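Reminder: ligand-aware prediction takes two inputs, not one.
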Amino acid sequence: MSDQLIIFDTTLRDGEQSPGASMTKDEKLRIARQLERLRVDVIEAGFAASSNGDFEAVKAIASHIKDSTVCSLARANDRDIGRAAEALQGAARSRIHTFIATSELHMEKKLRMTRDQVYEQAKLAVRFARNLCGDIEFSPEDGYRSDPDFLCRVLEAVIAEGATTINVPDTVGYAVPELYGNFIKMLRERVPNSDKAIWSVHCHNDLGMAVANSLAGVKIGGARQVECTINGLGERAGNTSLEEVVMAVKTRRDYFGLNVGIDTSQIVPASRMVSQTTGFVVQPNKAVVGANAFAHASGIHQDGVLKARDTYEIMRAEDVGWSANKIVLGKLSGRNAFKQRLQELGIELESEGEINAAFARFKDLADRKAEIFDEDILALVSDESVTK
Ligand code: KIV
Ligand code: ZN
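Here is what comes back for the chain with 3-methyl-2-oxobutanoic acid:
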């Protein structure tokens, strides 16, 4: 089995489903560029059939992003899949992600379909998608609460139709780590052609266990793709946090034995960019990206860290993109230091003209204020970087 863990980012699709987090096309494109710098393997850019806006956003991302696979979600029907394929046309590498619910509750109450109808529709959808794209992901929505016998039947059929990734969502965040890990393991053992697909985990955080469940799906279940979002953004209590999964796998490589292709120094800039764009504040004690994640306040800890960092630090702040050299910006600071801080804060201004204008405002402020904090810079550039 591969020792590479695929990082599938769904900030722009499942993350955006969070009430109040919707983003414009330009905002999505800016975040997609940051995700590419972060070197995520797959960017789920949106749900092309859901609106013209989402279609245009997926299309723009598909034509600009070269290093990550660009994916669109589609319900298991020809229209959605056709729209996804159309939006993805310009992509260097594309994926269609199609889904249909398989739990009794969802089939009966939401879809009003029988098991056989869902089974047929899943098969036909993957067959249709496979004719349009070589990289097809299939998700049985509410998979974790589905009857295992029926689920195995559906998954075997969609793999036979050409699905290359099988994603098992815990749509409502009901799983606990050991059970979810064993569920993935059971599916991989029981589906006869399971080795023809890469298995993926997709967890929601309703009980605060999305990251733990995803990691159990990897460790116990043998999944090799994790679906996640920056800052754990997502509906209700959110999705699995990308930064936590990546740093867990890297920091505990002794336990997981896996590699991730992520450039971790881009994690904090990505977190800031998503937070500024959506207005969703990152809690200070959030692992990896919270303002206090690397702050040592108690005397004993400060003393220990000054003597040897490993005493209280299991990761390096600078490895995840916190600026190592705490250059204090003030009235003597130059344009380069200002530009560098913008980059560390995940702020991307589009033209030199915008940078010059922001720098001029910075200089004005620095004349009135001895030290310029990150919050001041965020306020200075918010017009250009966020509200566009
Ligand atoms: O949570 C979920 O079930 C989903 C699927 C559409 C993959 O987001
Ligand atoms: Zn989801």
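The first helix runs from residue 25 to 38. The radius of gyration is 22 Å. We will return to this case in the review session.
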